[in-house]
Amino acid sequence: MTELTPDRMSQWADNGNGPVALHLRQALLPVEGKGSVIFPPTYAYRAENIHYNIDRLSDGTKIATIDSVGSQANRMEPIFLPARDGEPKNPRSKLVPQIVITYGNEKSVSILEAGHRLGDAIVRSTELKDAVKSAFLDFDDRGDASSLAKIGPTSLVFGVWDSRDTLVKIPRVVQSTIRAEDVSELRRSAQYNPPVNYAELDVFTEAEQTKSTDNPKSDLAQRGYVHVPAVDAHGGVIAHGPIRRDVTINLVALRRLDGVNGQALRRYVLGLALVAATTPLDGFLRTGCLLTIDPDQESGWESIARTGNRERIALNEEVALDYAKEAATDFGVGKDRAVTFNKALAQADAKKKTKARQ
Q1: Are 30 and 240 contacting, i.e. CB atoms less than 8 angstroms apart?
Q2: pTM of this structure
Q3: 67 and 31, same structural domain?
């Protein structure tokens, strides 16, 4: 296994003939053990069309998405948030500008929690609107990512599409997915029984009770006053094959970033990408899906050359954080900001027509 030095890591950002990617594959297990039921995310097109994302291969094998690229990015990005009261300080929070948007009755949200990052509507509804638009256009017109890196560098790490305004797309440097192979889909049913007979208490008539019982769409069922069955709902999946998390750092996309002091910029984004990719994530994805690393399966980072050759590297959380701290100092982290949601800006933006998507 190749030991890493700061100079060796910097070459990933500097050397156009260097490796094309870094990759980690982790085998995961449900906390209940191999073969236990886990619940993938559900996707709803309409209320009557709720489903898991399960693909069928040509040999009939079913592959279930357990956590998508977008979902994984949204789980990774908050590792750069400051620690909450009572928690140990988070050194990763000093690596990026902390931009907090206040709204409503003394509520606030960090830009690190905005699903579309710098392309989110919440950003266009603040005084950052013009600066962010200018930064996107700098990238689109001249390939200059400097302003984006000073305002919201995680948009360069996890990618962003300013789909409602400039239409600028920035590819992800870090992407991660979790999939389960060879799955069997289960169904489940349940029955709700009210604790008392409300018709006998004259809350409504026996006729109304009879009409509403076993009808989930009735008003009384919706309010929990009559017997209601829930039949043939999604019941999770059992993975007969592996559950895998794949994390990729796209070094080609990274090396295409440029701007003022481009070398320092690329090393800075690399440092953030390494930290994001190596920081352990909470395995609680949703109710019924709590995963851990499989201790019986070996996993580790590899560097992949253009030839396809793979080299094991000693990349870990500590090495990544040390490199990122130095790179952030050299580039200069953008300033923290506290801005306010502007209803008038939001109202004006909401009335605009979205441009045709490319």
Answers
A1: no
A2: 0.92
A3: yes
